[in-house]
Amino acid sequence: MTTDRSLLEDMLSDENLNKAYLQVVRNKGAEGVDGMKYTELKDYLKEHGEEIKEQIRTRKYKPKPVKRVEIPKDNGGVRNLGVPTVVDRFIQQAIVQILTPIYEPLFSEHSFGFRPNRCCEMAIVKALECMNEGYHWVVDIDLEKFFDNVSHDKLITIVMRNVKDGEIVSLIRKYLVSGIMIDNEYKESVIGTPQGGNLSPLLSNVILNELDKELEARGLHFTRYADDCIILVGSSKAADRVMANVSKYIEKKLGLKVNMTKSKVSKPNEIKYLGFGFYYDRYSQLWKAKPHEISIQKLKEKIKKLTSRSWSVDMNYRLIKLKQLIVGWVNYYRIGYFKIKAKEIDRNIRFRLRICIWKQWKKPYTRYKALKKLGLEEWKCKTWSNTRKSYARCASTFLKVAISKEVLKKRGLVTLLDQ
Prior knowledge:
This protein has 18 helices and 10 strands. By secondary structure, the chain is α+β, with helices and mostly antiparallel strands. A hairpin with a 4-residue loop joins strand 9 and strand 10.
C-alpha cells in the first residue's frame, strides 16, 4: 500500500495522471466555466502540465469555480449539478485513483454505490435477501439535498483519519470551497460537495460510511447506494424506533438533514428503491423485484417521444435510438420481473412504428410499391394503399399483417422481451 509520505507524489506520477486523463476523456462531459472541451485537454496538459504539478506541490494551485447546472426532477423541483472545468476533473480523478485503494477496505459490505465492481443490482439483491429472511418492514430515510448539505469541516475531519498527507487534504478542501458560478455570478460554497465532480462520489461514501458503521454496530440489516439507504427490520415497532434513532444520529452526528416528509416506514410493496418496486410471490413465497410503476411510466414517455409520427427523422436513426433506450433499460432492470409489461410495451412500440412508416410512405402509389415489395397480393396492395382510414385504424388492422413482427425485427427493431 502507498505510504502517507509518498501519497502526493503517487498522485502526481505519470502513470496515475495518464490513467486519470484517459478516464476523463472516456467520460466526455460538458465544459466548465472556462469553456475548455475535453478534446482540448491533451494539448493543454502538454503545455501546462508541469506548471500545474508544481503549483499542487507548493499548495498554490487554485481550482476554478464549478458551473451550476439545474436538471429538472420528476416532482417539479430541480437537481443542482456542479460542472468542474476539464482540468479540475482531471486532477480530481487523479486524487480519486489514489484514495480509492485506501478507502475500499474500510467501506461497508452493505454499500454499493460509486464503488469498483459494485452496482445497483447488488443493492437490490441484498434488499431481497433481507426481506426473504423475515425483515418485512422498511425504514426509508431520505437525506434532504445530501450533496448540498455536507459539512466541510465534518468531512475533512473524517478524511484526515485515514489520509495523513497534508497536501492531499489541502487540495480536497480547496475543491470543496472553490465556489459556484450561477449565471456568471460567483457564489461561495460554504457547505456541500458539488454533485457532478469526479471527487464527490468518493467523498459521499467517506461520510456515509460513518452511517454504515453505526448501523452495523446496532446490528441492523440495510443496503445503501450513494445516499439512497433502506433499513429492514422485523416489526412495525422496531421500524418506528429505528427511524427515530437513526434520523437523530444523522442530524446530530453527521450534520446532515433528514427529509421527514419523504422518509417513511412501510412494507416492501409500498416503496420505490433505485427505480425498483417489490412484490410478494405467493407461489414461491418469496419477495421479488420488478421495475416500479413510475419507472415504467418514464420508459413509456421516452418511447412515445421516439415513436412520435410528428418527429421527422430517418427510420434507421429512430430504430437506433429505440435500441439504445431498450437495451439500456432492460440491462438495468434485468433482475426484476416485467414480462407482462414488456409484452404490452413491445406491442405499443410496433403499433406506433407502423403509424410512422405509413405516414412516411404518404402517397397511395408509394404505399402500393412498398406493400408490393413486402410480397403482398395485388388486390391487397391496391385496396390498402388507397384506404382513407386513420393512421391508428390502419396500424391496428391490415398493417399488422403487412408490417409484421418479423418484418420490423428484420428492419432493426429491438424488443424488451427479446432482451
